[in-house]
C-alpha cells in the first residue's frame, strides 16, 4: 500500500523520549527490576499522550489509514527507544537482534486495540543474554498494557517453518524491519523470496482463498448483516488484506498500487481500493477508541456514535446512522467487486504457463467450449465467460443475457466475465431498461425453476440489478436501524425470492405445509414473484413504503411484460403485504370482526392464497430465528377462518347454540366418568372457552381440573410441548383475580420465558384456567419439559406469595443489556371499531423485562377487564393489543376515560412509574368462592396471545 505523506512530528518528541529513558537508565543504583519500573512510567506516559493526539487527529481529519499509520509509527518509536536503552544499559548483545513487525503491524498499520505482533530474529550463533534482552523488552510492553504476539527464531527456523505452515509464511511475507540488526531482516527477505515464494504462487493463492471462504462461512457468508464484523466479515478489512497478501506473494509487488502497472486494477479501481481501505480503517479505529478494546463487530449500540464521529447527518427517510451503514455496505460491496476483478487477473496470469508439456496440458484442460444457442458466451470449465472483449459494448442487452444463459445452463461465472460486467455498467441506460428482450430475460430469471435468488444475488453484487431497476438501486446496501431486520433491504428481498423458490419447488413442506399445498395451484405465478421481489423496494422514503412501493410496481410491471390484471395484482399485494402478518400477530383471531374486516380487504381466494405465500416469504427472509412454527399456525388459522367467510362456509348457528352444542360434545367425550362429574365439568365453562378451545383440549383440561380438585390444590400447573409449532404449553389453574394475567406474565418474564400466546378463561366457579404458550428453547422434549416445569413452579411460587414479583423480575433484568441505542416513542391507540363487543387498546413501545406485567397491572388498576390480548415482539419493539371492556362488559366510549387510559399506559411504557407497583399484594390467592353461588357477571378474560 502506497504511503501518503503523513506528518508524525506532533505525535511524539522522539529525541526527548530517548533522552528521558537514557536519564532513567543512567542511574547505576537501579537493578533491572527497578529500571523496568522506571522505564515503564516514562514510556507509558509518552504512549498514552501520543495515542490521545492520534485520536484527536482522527477526529480532525477523518483519515482511517493515516490513523493506523500514526499508531504504527508511535509503536515503532516506543520499541526502538526501549530496544536502544536495553542495549546501552543492560545487554549490549541486543544490538545483534533484529526486531521486525509482522501481521497488520508489519503492513505499517495498527488499530488502537490491535495486538502488537513481533518477530525477534536471532543470529545463527546466539546466547542467553540476547534472550534476556528480548524478555526485558517484552515485560515492559506487557506492563504497558499491550497485547503482544511474538516469536523468537533464527532465519533458518523461519524458513523451515514457513515451508509447512501457511500462517507463518503469511506473517513473514508481511515482516517489516523496526530496529536492531537490519541485516538479519534483509537476509530473511532474500531467502524467503528465493526458497519459499519462488514457484509456489498458485499454492499460496489457493490456500488464502480457501481460508477466506472458511472465514466468510463462519461470519455468516454475507456482507449484508446489519451488525457486520469490520475486520473478519465479508467485504471487511481482512478481504483487502487477503488481496494484498496474494498480490505481494504472487505478483512480487511491495504495495498494492503497483497492481495498476501490472494491469490488474485500473486507476479507478485502485482509487476504490484506497477509499475502501481508508473508510474501513476509520470505522475500525473509531470503534476501538470508543469501546476501549479491540471491538471488531459494528454492533447497534455503537453504530449511532460512530456515525456521529464520522460526520453523518440525517436526511428525509434515512437517519444519520442508516446513511452511515448504507455507506458501509456499499464499501463492502466495492471490496467484493475488487476481489472478483483481482481473481480474474489471477486466472489470466496462471493461464500463461511455461513452455513445454505443462503448457500443452494446460491448453487441453482449460479449453473453452461453445454454449448451445449463443455465440457471445463460452464455457470455461463449467463457468460462463465472454467469447470476445466487445460483447457488451456491441450489444448492452448481453449484460442481462449473460445471467440468463448462466441460469438456463446451470453455469457458474468466470471472474473475468464479472470483471467485464462491472466495468460495463455505464452501458445499462434507459435503452436497455426499456428493451423488451432484456425485460423478458429478466422475468424469466426471476421466475426460474432453478435458483432465481442466486442469479439475482450475482446481478446485485455485480451492480447490474441496481442499474437495470434504478428504484432497486436506491435500496442496495440500505439497512434499517432496528433489531428485527438482520439484513440490508436488498438482501432481504433476494432472500424473500429464495424462500418463494423453496416453496415453489416443494422443498419446504415440513415448514409451510399449507403454502406448499397452495403453490401448485397458483395461476399468477409471475405476478407473485414480482411482488415478492418488489415488496420493500420503497423503504427509506418519507412516505409509507407500501404505498410508494405499489406506485413503483405500477410503473415496472408493464415494463416487465405483465398484463393489466397481473400488474393490478402485484400492486395490491405490495400495498397490502403487511396486512396478513400484522392481523395474525396483533389481532384476536377468535373475534368475528377481525376475520370480517380482513376478508373485506382481501375480497378473493386468489388474493388470499398469494398474500399468505408472500407473507411467509417476507417473515422468513427477515433473519435467522424470526420465523417459527407458531407464526405459521397463526397465519394458517387466519387463512382458514377467512376461507370459510369468503366461500360462505361459516356456520349459521348462533353463538349460543354453538356453545350449547360444544358443551354436549364435551359431556359425551367424558363417557368413562360418573354422571355427576360429567355434568359438573362440562358446565364449568362459558361461551368464549367452548367456542375457541378444541374438544381434545377441553377433555384434557377437564382431567387436569378434576385431578387438582381431588388433591385439594388451589394452584396447579401442567406442561406439554408442541415441537412442530416450536411452542411449549403451560396450563395454570388458580383462583381468579384482577391481576392474575399480570402476575403470570411477570413470573414468565422472571423465569426468562418469552410468551408467544396465552388463552385466559374464567370458569363458572370463579377460577381462572390460563394456558400460556412460550417459545421453545431446547430441541429435545425432555430438556424442554424440564424447563417448562421450572417456569411452572415459578408461576406457582409467585401466585402463592412464596416469591415476590418485583424482586424476581429485578434479578432477571439485572444482567440484561438494555436497548439504550433505540428510541421508540410510546404509542397508545384506542379503537371501538375493530371489534363488535370490545374496545381494542394497542400499545407500541421499546421492549424490556416485565413490560407485559406492568401494562396489564395498569389495566387492572383502571378497572378494565381483559378479554384477550396479543403480545408481539419485533426485535426491540413490542406491539401489544388488548381486547377490553369495563367491569360491566361495556365498551370504553368516554373520551376522558380513554385519555386517562392512554396517559397511564404511556407513563408506564416510558418507565416513569416504578418497575412494579409497590401496592401489589405478595400473594394473590383469592378467598374461596361462596358455596352454591354462581358469579352473575363473570370477568370473561378469555385469551392472551403473545
From TrEMBL:
Domain (ACT): residue spans on this chain: 729-810, 840-919
Keywords: Hydrolase, Magnesium, Multifunctional enzyme, Nucleotidyltransferase, Repeat, Transferase
Domain of life: Bacteria
UniProt-listed Pfam families: ACT (PF01842), GlnD_UR_UTase (PF08335), HD (PF01966), NTP_transf_2 (PF01909)
EC number: 2.7.7.59, 3.1.4.-
Transmembrane segments: none
Family matches, as InterPro entries: ACT-like_dom_sf, ACT_dom, HD/PDEase_dom, HD_domain, NT_sf, PII_UdlTrfase/GS_AdlTrfase, Polymerase_NTP_transf_dom, UTase/UR
Single Gene Ontology MF annotation: nucleotidyltransferase activity
Cofactor dependence: Mg(2+)
Cell wall biogenesis/degradation is among the record's keywords: no
Catalytic activities: [protein-PII]-L-tyrosine + UTP = [protein-PII]-uridylyl-L-tyrosine + diphosphate; [protein-PII]-uridylyl-L-tyrosine + H2O = [protein-PII]-L-tyrosine + UMP + H(+)
Protein's UniProt keywords contain Hydrolase: yes
Region called Uridylyltransferase, residue ranges: 1-372
Activity modulation: Uridylyltransferase (UTase) activity is inhibited by glutamine, while glutamine activates uridylyl-removing (UR) activity.
The HD domain, residue ranges: 489-605
Disordered: region residues: 918-946
Comment field on protein domains: Has four distinct domains: an N-terminal nucleotidyltransferase (NT) domain responsible for UTase activity, a central HD domain that encodes UR activity, and two C-terminal ACT domains that seem to have a role in glutamine sensing.
PANTHER family documented for this protein: BIFUNCTIONAL URIDYLYLTRANSFERASE/URIDYLYL-REMOVING ENZYME, BIFUNCTIONAL URIDYLYLTRANSFERASE_URIDYLYL-REMOVING ENZYME
Function: Modifies, by uridylylation and deuridylylation, the PII regulatory proteins (GlnB and homologs), in response to the nitrogen status of the cell that GlnD senses through the glutamine level. Under low glutamine levels, catalyzes the conversion of the PII proteins and UTP to PII-UMP and PPi, while under higher glutamine levels, GlnD hydrolyzes PII-UMP to PII and UMP (deuridylylation). Thus, controls uridylylation state and activity of the PII proteins, and plays an important role in the regulation of nitrogen metabolism.
Family under the similarity heading: Belongs to the GlnD family.
NCBIfam families xrefs: PRK05092.1, UTase_glnD
Protein name per its UniProtKB record: Bifunctional uridylyltransferase/uridylyl-removing enzyme
Lineage per the UniProt record: Bacteria, Pseudomonadati, Pseudomonadota, Alphaproteobacteria, Hyphomicrobiales
Amino acid at each position: 500500500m502506497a504511503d501518503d505523506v503523513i506528518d508524525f512530528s506532533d505525535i511524539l518528541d522522539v529525541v526527548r523520549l530517548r533522552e528521558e529513558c537514557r536519564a532513567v537508565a543512567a542511574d547505576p543504583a537501579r537493578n533491572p527490576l527497578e529500571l523496568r519500573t522506571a522505564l515503564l512510567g516514562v514510556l507509558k506516559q509518552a504512549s498514552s499522550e501520543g495515542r490521545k493526539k492520534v485520536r484527536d487527529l482522527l477526529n480532525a481529519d477523518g483519515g482511517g489509514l493515516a490513523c493506523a499509520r500514526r499508531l504504527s509509527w508511535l509503536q515503532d518509536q516506543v520499541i526502538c527507544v526501549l530496544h536502544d536503552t536495553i542495549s546501552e544499559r543492560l545487554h549490549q548483545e541486543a544490538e545483534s537482534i533484529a526486531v521486525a513487525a509482522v501481521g497488520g503491524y508489519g503492513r505499517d498499520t495498527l488499530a488502537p486495540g490491535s495486538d502488537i505482533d513481533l518477530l525477534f530474529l536471532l543470529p545463527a550463533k546466539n546466547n542467553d543474554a540476547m534472550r534476556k534482552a528480548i524478555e526485558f523488552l517484552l515485560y515492559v510492553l506487557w506492563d504497558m498494557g499491550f497485547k503482544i504476539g511474538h516469536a523468537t527464531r533464527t532465519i533458518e527456523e523461519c524458513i523451515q517453518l514457513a515451508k509447512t505452515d501457511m500462517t507463518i509464511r503469511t506473517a513473514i511475507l508481511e515482516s517489516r524491519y523496526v530496529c536492531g540488526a537490519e541485516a538479519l531482516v534483509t537476509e530473511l527477505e532474500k531467502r524467503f523470496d528465493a526458497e519459499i515464494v519462488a514457484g509456489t504462487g498458485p499454492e499460496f493463492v489457493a490456500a488464502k482463498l480457501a481460508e477466506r471462504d472458511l472465514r466468510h462461512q463462519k461470519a455468516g457468508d454475507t456482507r449484508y448483516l446489519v451488525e457486520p464484523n469490520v475486520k473478519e466479515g465479508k467485504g471487511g478489512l481482512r478481504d483487502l488484506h487477503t488481496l494484498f497478501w496474494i498480490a505481494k506473494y504472487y505478483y512480487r509487488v511491495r504495495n498494492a498500487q503497483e497492481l495498476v502497472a501490472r494491469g490488474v486494477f485500473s486507476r479507478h479501481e485502485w482509487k476504490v481500493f484506497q477509499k475502501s481501505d481508508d473508510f474501513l480503517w476509520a470505522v475500525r479505529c473509531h470503534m476501538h477508541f470508543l469501546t476501549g478494546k479491540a471491538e471488531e463487530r459494528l454492533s447497534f449500540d455503537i453504530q449511532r456514535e460512530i456515525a456521529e464521529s464520522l460526520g453523518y447527518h440525517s436526511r428525509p427517510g434515512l437517519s444519520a446512522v442508516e446513511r452511515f451503514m448504507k455507506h458501509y455496505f456499499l464499501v463492502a460491496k466495492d471490496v467484493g467487486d475488487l476481489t472478483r476483478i483481482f481473481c480474474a487477473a489471477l486466472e489470466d496470469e496462471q493461464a500463461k504457463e511455461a513452455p513445454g508439456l505443462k503448457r500443452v496440458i494446460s491448453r487441453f484442460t482449460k479449453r473453452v467450449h461453445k454454449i448451445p444457442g449463443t455465440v457471445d458466451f463460452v464455457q470455461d470449465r463449467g463457468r460462463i465467460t465472454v467469447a470476445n472483449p466487445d460483447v457488451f459494448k456491441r450489444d448492452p442487452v448481453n449484460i442481462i443475457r449473460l445471467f440468463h444463459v448462466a441460469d438456463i445452463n446451470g453455469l457458474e461465472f468466470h471472474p473475468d466475465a464479472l470483471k467485464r460486467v462491472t466495468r460495463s455498467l455505464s452501458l445499462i441506460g434507459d435503452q436497455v431498461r426499456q428493451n423488451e428482450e432484456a425485460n423478458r430475460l429478466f422475468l424469466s430469471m426471476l421466475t426460474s425453476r432453478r435458483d432465481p435468488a442466486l442469479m439475482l444475488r450475482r446481478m446485485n453484487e455485480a451492480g447490474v440489478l441496481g442499474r437495470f431497476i434504478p428504484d432497486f438501486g436506491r435500496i442496495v446496501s440500505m439497512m434499517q436501524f432496528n433489531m428485527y431486520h438482520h439484513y440490508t433491504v436488498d438482501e432481504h428481498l433476494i432472500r424473500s425470492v429464495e424462500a418463494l423458490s423453496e416453496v415453489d419447488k416443494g422443498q419446504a413442506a415440513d415448514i409451510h405445509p399449507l403454502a406448499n399445498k397452495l403453490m401448485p395451484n397458483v395461476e399468477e405465478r409471475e405476478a407473485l414473484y414480482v411482488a415478492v421481489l418488489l415488496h420493500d423496494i420503497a423503504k427509506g422514503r418519507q412516505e409509507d413504503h407500501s404505498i410508494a412501493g405499489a406506485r413503483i410496481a405500477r410503473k415496472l410491471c408493464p415494463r416487465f411484460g405483465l398484463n393489466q390484471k397481473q400488474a393490478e395484482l402485484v400492486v395490491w399485494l405490495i400495498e397490502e403485504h403487511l396486512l396478513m402478518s400484522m392481523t395474525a400477530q396483533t389481532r384476536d383471531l377468535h373475534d368475528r370482526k377481525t376475520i370480517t374486516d380482513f376478508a373485506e380487504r382481501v375480497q378473493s381466494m386468489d388474493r388470499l392464497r398469494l398474500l399468505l405465500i408472500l407473507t411467509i416469504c417476507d417473515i422468513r427472509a427477515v433473519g435467522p430465528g424470526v420465523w417459527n412454527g407458531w407464526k405459521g399456525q397463526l397465519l394458517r388459522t387466519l387463512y382458514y377462518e377467512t376461507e370459510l367467510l369468503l366461500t360462505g362456509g361459516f356456520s349459521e348457528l348462533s353463538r349460543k347454540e354453538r356453545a350449547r352444542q360444544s358443551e354436549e360434545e364435551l359431556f359425551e367425550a367424558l363417557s368413562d366418568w360418573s354422571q355427576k362429574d360429567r355434568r359438573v365439568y362440562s358446565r364449568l365453562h362459558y361461551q368464549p372457552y367452548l367456542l375457541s378451545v378444541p374438544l381434545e383440549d377441553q377433555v384434557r383440561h377437564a382431567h387436569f381440573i378434576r385431578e387438582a380438585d381431588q388433591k385439594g390444590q388451589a394452584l396447579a400447573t401442567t406442561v406439554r410441548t408442541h415441537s412442530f409449532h416450536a411452542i411449549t404449553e403451560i396450563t395454570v389453574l388458580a383462583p381468579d383475580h384482577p391481576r392474575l394475567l399480570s402476575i403470570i406474565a411477570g413470573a414468565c418474564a422472571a423465569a426468562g420465558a418469552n410468551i408467544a400466546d396465552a388463552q385466559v378463561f374464567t370458569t363458572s366457579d370463579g377460577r381462572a384456567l390460563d394456558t400460556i404458550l412460550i417459545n421453545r428453547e431446547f430441541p429435545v422434549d425432555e430438556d424442554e419439559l424440564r424447563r417448562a416445569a421450572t417456569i411452572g413452579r415459578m408461576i406457582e411460587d409467585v401466585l402463592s406469595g412464596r416469591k415476590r414479583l418485583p424482586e424476581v423480575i429485578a434479578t432477571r433484568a439485572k444482567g440484561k443489556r438494555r436497548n439504550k441505542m433505540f428510541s421508540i416513542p410510546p404509542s397508545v391507540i384506542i379503537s371501538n371499531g375493530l371489534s363488535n363487543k370490545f374496545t381494542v387498546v394497542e400499545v407500541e413501545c421499546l421492549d424490556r423485562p416485565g413490560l407485559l406485567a406492568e401494562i396489564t397491572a395498569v389495566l387492572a388498576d383502571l378497572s378494565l377487564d381483559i378479554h384477550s390480548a396479543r403480545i408481539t415482539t419485533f426485535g426491540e419493539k413490542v406491539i401489544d393489543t388488548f381486547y377490553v371492556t369495563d367491569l360491566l362488559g361495556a365498551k370504553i366510549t368516554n373520551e376522558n376515560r380513554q385519555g386517562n387510559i392512554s396517559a397511564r399506559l404511556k407513563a408506564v411504557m416510558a418507565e416513569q412509574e416504578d418497575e412494579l407497583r409497590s401496592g401489589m399484594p405478595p400473594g394473590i390467592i383469592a378467598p374461596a368462592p361462596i358455596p352454591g353461588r354462581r358469579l352473575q357477571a363473570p370477568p370473561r378474560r378469555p385469551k392472551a396471545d403473545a
